[in-house]
Design goal:
By secondary structure, the chain is mainly alpha-helical. About 70% of the residues lie in helices and about 5% in strands. The radius of gyration is 20 Å and the shape is globular. Bound molecules: protoporphyrin IX containing FE. Protoporphyrin IX containing FE binds near residues 73, 118, 131, 155 and 202. Protoporphyrin IX containing FE binds near residues 71, 132 and 220.
Length: about 260
C-alpha cells in the first residue's frame, strides 16, 4: 500500500511534492513495521490513559477501560488527521505522513471495540447507569439533551469510520476515483460527531470539575477536547495556507 498511499492534498502540487519526498526519504519500509509501530503507539496511549484514570483515583470498572478505548481512538484518529498539517508546516516530520492510514485504522479498531462494548452495556448486559440508559436526559449548557442523541452521534461516527476504513485501500481508490479523497474527508465529520457524542455525556462532569475542583487532575475527556480542537484548528490553518498559496500562484510563493 505504501507506494499507493494517499497524498495529504492531492489537489495541491506542493503538498503532493512533500508527500513524494516523504516516501523517498522513508525508503521501502515494510507494511508490517507501520502496523506494528501504530499498534505500539496505541498501546502506549491506552496505558497512558489508564494510568491517568488511576491517578485521578477513580473506582476502576469496565466503564473506565471502555472509556480509555474511546480516548485512544480519538487520539489516534486525531493524530492521523493532524499529520497532514504537521508534515506540511514542519518538514522534520515529512516521513511520518505514511502513518496516516495506519494510525487511522488502528484508531478505528479502538473505536469499534469501544462501540461494541458500549452497545452490550446499553442493550445486553443489564445495568442501572445513566450513561447506558438511552432515555436519560443530560444537562448540557443549560439544555436538556436526551442520551439517545449521544448514542446516535456515536453510532453515526462509527459507521462513517467503518466506511472510511473499508475504502482506504487500492480497491477503494480505484473504485471512487476523483471522489475518493473527498470521501475520506468525511472523517472530519465523524470526528465532530464523536465530539458531540462524548461532549453530551461528559459535560456535567466537566462542569463539576471546572466549578468545584473535586480532584486535582481534570477528567481525561476534558483534556481530550482540547486536543480535538487543536486538530480542527490545524486543519483550518492548512486549508487557509493552501488557499493563500493557490491565490498567490506558484511564482509568488517564495515571497
Ligand atoms: C455505537 C457507537 C457508540 C456507543 C454506543 C458509545 C457509547 C459510549 C458511552 C456509553 C460512553 C460513556 C462511557 C463512560 O462515561 O464511562 C462513551 C464515551 C465516549 N465515547 Fe463513545 N460510543 C460509541 C461510539 C464512539 C465513537 C465512534 C467514538 C470516537 C471515535 C467514541 C468516543 C467516545 C469518547 C471519547 C468518550 C468519552 C470517554 C471518557 O470519558 O474519557 N464513541 N461512549
Amino acid at each position: 500500500m505504501d507506494q499507493q498511499s494517499p497524498a495529504p492534498e492531492s489537489s495541491h502540487s506542493t503538498a503532493q511534492q512533500k508527500y513524494d519526498q516523504a516516501l523517498k526519504k522513508r525508503g521501502p519500509t515494510a507494511r508490517w513495521n507501520l502496523w506494528r509501530n501504530s499498534f505500539l503507539l496505541s498501546a502506549a496511549a491506552y496505558s497512558g490513559v489508564i494510568i491517568y484514570q488511576l491517578g485521578r483515583g477513580v473506582d476502576y470498572s469496565i466503564n473506565h477501560a471502555n472509556a480509555a478505548l474511546a480516548d485512544t481512538a480519538i487520539i489516534l484518529i486525531g493524530l492521523s488527521f493532524a499529520l497532514s498539517g504537521i508534515c506540511y508546516f514542519w518538514d522534520f516530520f515529512d516521513t511520518k505522513i505514511i502513518y496516516r492510514k495506519y494510525l487511522g485504522i488502528t484508531g478505528f479498531a479502538y473505536a469499534l471495540a469501544h462501540g461494541l462494548i458500549a452497545y452490550f452495556l446499553y442493550f445486553v448486559i443489564p445495568n442501572d447507569q445513566s450513561r447506558y440508559d438511552a432515555l436519560y436526559v443530560w444537562e448540557v449548557f443549560g439544555f436538556q439533551v436526551n442520551n439517545a442523541y449521544a448514542f446516535l452521534f456515536g453510532a453515526t461516527a462509527l459507521l462513517i469510520l467503518l466506511f472510511m476504513a473499508s475504502i482506504s485501500n487500492t480497491a477503494g481508490m480505484k473504485r471512487y476515483g476523483q471522489r475518493w479523497r473527498p470521501l475520506l474527508r468525511l472523517g472530519y465529520l465523524a470526528y465532530f460527531l464523536a465530539l458531540l457524542h462524548y461532549g453530551i455525556k461528559r459535560y456535567e462532569v466537566w462542569e463539576i470539575w471546572l466549578t468545584e475542583r473535586p480532584s486535582v487532575l481534570p477528567p481525561f475527556s476534558l483534556l481530550l477536547t482540547a486536543f480535538v480542537l487543536l486538530v480542527f484548528i490545524l486543519r483550518l490553518a492548512l486549508l487557509i495556507k493552501l488557499r493563500l498559496v493557490k491565490q498567490r500562484g506558484p511564482d509568488k510563493q517564495s515571497l
